[in-house]
Amino acid sequence: MANAARDTFVVGPRNAHAMEVEARELMERQSERLDEYPEVKAKITAHLQETNEQLRRLEKCLEACGESTSSLKDTAQSVMANMMAMAHSVAGDEILKNTFANNAFENFEIAAYKSLLALCGAAGMPEAKEPLETSLKEEQRMAAWIDSNVEKVTMEYLTHQRQAA
């Protein structure tokens, strides 16, 4: 059972690393286009810094297991993120689409970290618990911020639309 738990655990940080690569790409593309929404841009920029730290934590976690990231998974997620950003950028309501997608993505990340934390003990990786908990808390804070700002962003978008008309 310990080997199955460890094997399952090792796949998790690889997947989480690819997930965070996707998040980084999305936030980089989004932040380039958020000048009309300075509060959102500031929050995305701050979370981008957290994401870079999360990537480092996941890399250390994998190194502790004698493993490494998956270049294939990272590249695939990066391409997907850029395609999604491009698709949203041509929409008139890009800020709304990004807000909804970010809300969903943050909750996906939360679930991924909760799963990894559940595996730490069974996989014999108790040292991974603290860095994973730190990443989980960062994702939970970002998810809560997005959730509490959906209405505000929507109304800001409406104001911009009225001004453009």
Question: Would you write up a description of this structure?
Answer:
- The protein has 165 residues and is mainly alpha-helical.
- The protein is 84% helix and 0% strand.
- The protein is built from five helices and no strands.
- The model has no long low-confidence stretch (mean pLDDT 88).
Q: In terms of per-residue confidence, which ranges show pLDDT below 50 for 5 or more consecutive residues?
A: none
Radius of gyration: 17 Å
Oligomeric state of the chains in view: single chain
For the biggest sheet, the summary is: none
What is the helix fraction of residues, given as a range? Answer: over 70%
Tell me the distance between the termini. Answer: 63 Å
Rough shape? elongated
Instruction: Kindly report the average pLDDT value.
Output: 88
Percent of residues in β-strands: under 5%
**Series of secondary-structure elements, N-terminal to C-terminal:** HHHHH
